[in-house]
Structure prediction request, 436 residues.
Amino acid sequence: MSTNNIQSEQSAYLKELNALFIPLDGMENLDRMVNAIGDADIVLLGEASHGTADFYRYRAELSKRLIANKGFNIIGVEGDWPAAYRLNRYVKGMVGSDSSASDALGDFTRWPTWMWANTDICYFAEWLKEHNAANHTESSERPKVGFYGIDMYSLWESMEAIIGYLEETKSPQLEQARRTYACFDPYSKDHQSYGIAAGLLSESCENEVVELLKQMQNRRMAHPASEEELNAEVNMLVTSSSEAYYRTMVRGGPESWNVRDKHMVESLKRIMAYYGRTAKAIVWEHNTHIGDARATDMIQDGMVNVGQLLREDPEHRVFAVGFGTYQGEVLAGRAWGDPVEKMIVPPGQPGSWEDYMHRAGEGRDGMVMLSDTSSVLHKSIGHRAIGVVYNPDHERYGNYVPSNMADRYDAFIHIDRTTALQPLPVHQPVATEALF
Prediction:
C-alpha cells in the first residue's frame, strides 16, 4: 500500500474517532454508557492491565449505576472463588462474616495479590454492603448483590471447602471427597508438580474428580437451592476445571486457556441460575477475556474467550466495554512471583488504538460507542494489553494485540493518563500460572 493510501486510511480512522469521542468530564457522562447498555443482562467490563487504579474506579462507578438503576445483582471477577466468597459473605452481611472489607479481602494471598486486595476494591465492597443493607430486608424478594470469583486456580482451597461443607451436612459424598483429596496429597499443593505428573506421566486424579462431580450434581438436584449449596457446587466445578487446566497446561497450546475461559463462563451461568429470573451480571476481567476473541488474532490460534462464548449464547444479551490508557502507571512484576513494582507505562505506540484515542480526545479521558460505527473502524489495529508480568522496555515486542475494535467491544473507555493501584497489606503471596 502506498504512503498516500496509508495516510488517507489513518486520517479517516481519526476523523471517525473524533466524531464518536465523548469526553467523560470526570464521571459525569457515564450515564450515557448506562443508557447504551439498554436491556443487556450481562455487562462485561474490561481492563488493559491488572494494576491500574483508574480502571477499577470507573468499573466500580459503572457497576454502582447499573446496580442502582438497572437492577444488576451479580459481580463476577477474575479471581478465586473461595477468596471472593469470603468477601461475598461480608457484602451480604451473612452470619459469621468479617467486620470490615479489608479483613474480608484477607484470603487474596495468591500472587498477584494486588488484583483484588487493593483500596479500590475495599471502597467498592463497603458500598456494596451499604447498598445491600439499605435496599434488602428479610422479606424482600430482590436478592442481595453478590461478589463472586469465577476463576479456577483454587484447586486445593476448593477441595478443602467441599470437604468442610460435606462434613457439616453429614453428606454421603464425604468419603468420595476424601478419596479425591487424597489423590492430590502427593503433590503437596504444587500445581506444577501435579501438571507434570498428570499431563506428561498420565498420573492424574481425573477419574476421582469426575466421580465426585457426578455425586455432587446428583446431590444438588435433590436439594433446594441455597447460598451454601451454590458455594459447594462452584467449588466442585473449580476442582474439576482446575484439574483439567493443570493437566493440559504442561502440553502447551490453546487447550488450557480454553479450559479456563469456558470455566469462567460456566461459573457465571451457575451463579445466574441460582439468582433465577432476576439475574443480571457484571463481569470484571482483563480485556483479553471480555473482548471477543474472534476480533483478534486469538482465533488463528484456536483460542476462545469469555466475551466470545457469552456473545454466542442466544439466551443472553451481552454488552462489552473495553478499557485502555495512553500512558501512566501500573503495578506489575518483572517476572512471575517477583515483588510488585510501580512501573511507568510509556505513551501508546504510533498508529495504535491508544494513540488514536489520545489524539481524538486531545489528551482528555473519554469514551466511544462502537456498536454503530462505519466500516472504517472495522480494520485491524494494535491494542495494548499489559499482564501481571510486565517490562515497559519490551512492550512493543508483545503487548499489542491486533484487534478489530468495533467487533471486539460494544464501547470503550479511554483514560489518557492513569495511576497505579494501592495494594492492601496481605500475607506472603504464592505464585500461580496466568498472564492476563
